Structures are given as structure tokens and as C-alpha cells.
């Protein structure tokens, strides 16, 4: 108080000087205030520039000598610029009794406003420090794929909440607890207003604790059209960059309330599944004659298998005295069975199939579109473009190999098939319908 009175005497002295110069008192007090206010503003501007330049210069020199990136992020997030504003605020606090010495009633409200700004500046500085910590943590291996943004946003909301309480207390002159008590009565409204924030906060904690999603994961959520890489997880939303370079934003709490596919397990395992069928035309399935077996024995991947199976079948039929004039009697090889064996041998020796994961060729239930022969195997490449190329190469080969086993791939009649039937001389409607039914079967 004595210091404030001392400073106010300086302001009164300048007013007295102006009145001694012949200026009326009611004019001198305003002229004195404006002159001192102009000097204060000039001093504030000069001190702010000098302090910021000194701090930033020191920070840049220090950052250049260190290998850590933390100080670089301090500069990037303007931490030193915010700290530099503390010096002008100290000057303002000390100068208020001088500038407004003749208007003492103004000093307390202005000091209250300055104190409120000090609270805001403290919040902004702490927020800048939080952003600095966030940016630095994202560069470390431990936190690179964690939803750091969510926790920073929660702490930021808490800072603004505490700051709001302090500013309210300064402006109203009431205690902080009075405001907290008033908020208790309005808790239902607050819960409604901040519903998404609260849900997002809870979801962020669950997502992080259960390790459901990390930054960099490939996820698929068809309900929201998301199929791509997670690029950001914050308090209320998850941003997914789709493979067509578009961005899909999903509310964070939907990750725990709805289902989605996370492909991280596939990428970590090093194998991606192929599960696709070739539909064989049932009418092309047949028993193999001796001539057929000899012809197919020239195919390297099944030659040894055919030799062993033929000896086994011949021994069985001989022991049972089976009449093999009809192939249906006893045991016989079928072209589709040999084709399945060929597919199995082909994927076993393929360079891009994962040999330590499931490799299976199975026959599914016959349908109206033929007999499905399903290939269930994993590639040793998980990258999408490589995976598609490997799968295409495998099925290109198998579809071309079908005819060597006297099999046909099922397909519906095309327009060219119909035109060819119409083009044949003597073709009437009845024969056309009969031919089309034959093609279906």
C-alpha cells in the first residue's frame, strides 16, 4: 500500500506541475492521464519487443546447440512469446497508481481486468506447453501411435474451466466455491451441453486402455464409409484418411458402440488371407480313364500323385475283383479331384504364399452356379497393391489351367452365345430354349 501511495504521489506531482503552468485543474487531470497513458503504452511496447527478442534469441541459440526437439517445439508453439508478456504486465500493475492517480476509483476495476488477463495469459502459456509436450511425445516410439490429442484436449478443457472460475471470482468478488455450488444446480444442463465431450472423453480412455485403435492403423467402418489409415485421434473425433485420399471423420464413441475392422493384426502377422472360389460347371465333372490319367501325368505338380493314387486304386480294385469296364465300378479318379490336388500343390510351391499359415483347398456345397472350389490361403505380402497382384496371378493361372483337366468354369450365357445360336441355320425357338437350358445346366 505504501508503494502504491508513493507511485500515486508521482502522478499527483505531474498534475500539480501542469496546474502551476496555468492549466485549469479539471483539464490538467485529464491531460496528465493521457500523457502518462501514452508514455505507458510506449514503455509497454518497447519492453514487450525487448523481452520477446531477448527470450527468443536466447531460445534459438540454445535450441541450435541441443539435439532434442523439445526446445524446437517450445519455439514453434510460441511459449517464449507468451512468457515475454509477463514483463509488460508487471509494468502495468506498477504503473496503474501513477497513470490514474487523479482517478483512484478507476484503479481497482482496471487492476481486476489486468488480473483477469494474467489468468488468461497463464492458461495460454500452459496450453502452449501442453501442445509442446504433445508434439514431442508424438515423435517418440512410446507415444507415436497413442491418442495423445485426446488427453491434451481434456487437460485444456480443465485449464479453461479453472481459469473461468478464477476470472468469475475476480470479476464478481465472490469466492470460487460459490460458483461451484451454483454449477451443481445446473449440472443437468451442463451434462446435456457437454454430452459429446464427455462421451468422447470416456471413449478415448477406453480406446487407449484396450488398445483398440492406434494412429497408423488401417481400419474399415462401412457404416461411415471409412476404409483407410487413422491419422488423428482426439477427444471427440477420429480422422481416417481413405485410400482415395478423402478424409472420413468418425465420432470417437462410435468406436466402442459400433463394430469396425482393424487390420493391424493382419499386418503384424505378416500374412493376408485369400478366400475366393472357382465355380466349376457340374456337367464337366467326370471319371478319369486310363488315357486321361496318362495325359494328366505329364503335368509336373500332379504326376507323382497320380502314379501313387493309380497304384493304390488298382490294388484295391484287384483285391475286390471289381469289373472296371464301367468307370463307376469300384474306385476311380475324377478330374475335379485331381484339379483340387493340383491347386494344393501349386499354392504349396508358390513363392508368395505364407507357408506357416492355413493353406487349404476345399469343395463347397453345389449351387445353381456350379461346384465351388474354394482357395483358402495367406499371402506373405500384406501391402494392398502387392496382395492384389499375387491373388490375380494365382487365379489367372488356375482359370487357365481348368481346361487341362477337361473342366469348365460356370458362367451364364452371354449375348454372343445367343447371337451364335440365332445365326445357325434351322434354329427355331424351341431348339433355342433347349440350348439355353443346356447351357445353364
How far do the termini sit from each other? 105 Å
Give the overall pLDDT as a whole number.
80
Radius of gyration: 41 Å
Strand ordering within the main sheet: 4-3-2-1-5
The proportion of strand residues reads 5-15%
Give the CA-based shape.
Answer: rod-shaped
Q: Helix segment count?
A: 18
How many beta strands in the DSSP annotation?
A: 8
How many independent structural domains? 3
Element string (H = helix, E = strand): HHHHHHHHHHEEEEHEHEHHHEEHHH
| Percentage of residues in helical conformation | 55-70%
Outline the biggest β-sheet. Answer: 5 strands, antiparallel
Class of secondary structure makeup = alpha+beta
Poorly predicted regions: 1-7
Fold topology:
Blueprint: H1 2-20, H2 25-65, H3 70-76, H4 79-84, H5 86-99, H6 104-138, H7 148-172, H8 176-185, H9 187-193, H10 195-209, E1 218-221, E2 226-233, E3 237-242, E4 247-251, H11 254-257, E5 261-262, H12 264-269, E6 272-280, H13 290-296, H14 300-319, H15 335-349, E7 360-363, E8 371-379, H16 384-401, H17 415-423, H18 429-440
Antiparallel strand pairs: 1-2, 1-5, 2-3, 3-4, 6-8, 7-8
Helix pairs in contact: 1-2, 1-5, 2-5, 3-6, 5-6, 6-7, 14-15
Keywords: Cell inner membrane, Cell membrane, Membrane, Stress response, Transmembrane, Transmembrane helix
GO molecular function: mechanosensitive monoatomic ion channel activity
Protein name: Mechanosensing system component YbdG
Amino acid at each position: 500500500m505504501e508503494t502504491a501511495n508513493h507511485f500515486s504521489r508521482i502522478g499527483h506531482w505531474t498534475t500539480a506541475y501542469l496546474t502551476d503552468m496555468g492549466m485549469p485543474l479539471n483539464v490538467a487531470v485529464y491531460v496528465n492521464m493521457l500523457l502518462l497513458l501514452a508514455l505507458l503504452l510506449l514503455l509497454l511496447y518497447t519492453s514487450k519487443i525487448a523481452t520477446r527478442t531477448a527470450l527468443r534469441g536466447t531460445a534459438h541459440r540454445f535450441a541450435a546447440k541441443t539435439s532434442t526437439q523439445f526446445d524446437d517445439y517450445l519455439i514453434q508453439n510460441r511459449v517464449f512469446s507468451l512468457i515475454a508478456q509477463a514483463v509488460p504486465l508487471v509494468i502495468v500493475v506498477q504503473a496503474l497508481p501513477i497513470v490514474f492517480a487523479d482517478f483512484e476509483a478507476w484503479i481497482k476495476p482496471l487492476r481486476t481486468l489486468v488480473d483477469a488477463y494474467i489468468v488468461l495469459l497463464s492458461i495460454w502459456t500452459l496450453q502452449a506447453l501442453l501442445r509442446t509436450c504433445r508434439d514431442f511425445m508424438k515423435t517418440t516410439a512410446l507415444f507415436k501411435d497413442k491418442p495423445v490429442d485426446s488427453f491434451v484436449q481434456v487437460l485444456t478443457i480443465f485449464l479453461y474451466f479453472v481459469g473461468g472460475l478464477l476470472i468469475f471470482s475476480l470479476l464478481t468478488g465472490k469466492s470460487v466455491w460459490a460458483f461451484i455450488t451454483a454449477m451443481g444446480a445446473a449440472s443437468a444442463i451442463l451434462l446435456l451441453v457437454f454430452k459429446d465431450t464427455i462421451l468422447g472423453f470416456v471413449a478415448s480412455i477406453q480406446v487407449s486402455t484396450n488398445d483398440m485403435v492406434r494412429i497408423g492403423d488401417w481400419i474399415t467402418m462401412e457404416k461411415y464409409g471409412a476404409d483407410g489409415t487413422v491419422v488423428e485421434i482426439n477427444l471427440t473425433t477420429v480422422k481416417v484418411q481413405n485410400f482415395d485420399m478423402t478424409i472420413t471423420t468418425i465420432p470417437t464413441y462410435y468406436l466402442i458402440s459400433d463394430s469396425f475392422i482393424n487390420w493391424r493384426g493382419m499386418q503384424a502377422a505378416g500374412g493376408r488371407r485369400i478366400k475366393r472360389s472357382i465355380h466349376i460347371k457340374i456337367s464337366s465333372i467326370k471319371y478319369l480313364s486310363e488315357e486321361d490319367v496318362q495325359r494328366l501325368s505329364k503335368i509336373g505338380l500332379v504326376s507323382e500323385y497320380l502314379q501313387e493314387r493309380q497304384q493304390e486304386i488298382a490294388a484295391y480294385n484287384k483285391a475286390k475283383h471289381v469289373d472296371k469296364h464301367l468307370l463307376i465300378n469300384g474306385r476311380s479318379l475324377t478330374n475335379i479331384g485331381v484339379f483340387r490336388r493340383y491347386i494344393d500343390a501349386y499354392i504349396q510351391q508358390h513363392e508368395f504364399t505364407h507357408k506357416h499359415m492355413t493353406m487349404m483347398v476345399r469343395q463347397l456345397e453345389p449351387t445353381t452356379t456350379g461346384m465351388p472350389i474354394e482357395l483358402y490361403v495367406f499371402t506373405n505380402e500384406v501391402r494392398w497393391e502387392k496382395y492384389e497382384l499375387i491373388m490375380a496371378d494365382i487365379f489367372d493361372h488356375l482359370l487357365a489351367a481348368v481346361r487341362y483337366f477337361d473342366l469348365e468354369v460356370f458362367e451364364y450365357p452371354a449375348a454372343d452365345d445367343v447371337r451364335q445360336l440365332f445365326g445357325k441355320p434351322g434354329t427355331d425357338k424351341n431348339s433355342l430354349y433347349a440350348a439355353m437350358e443346356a447351357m445353364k445346366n
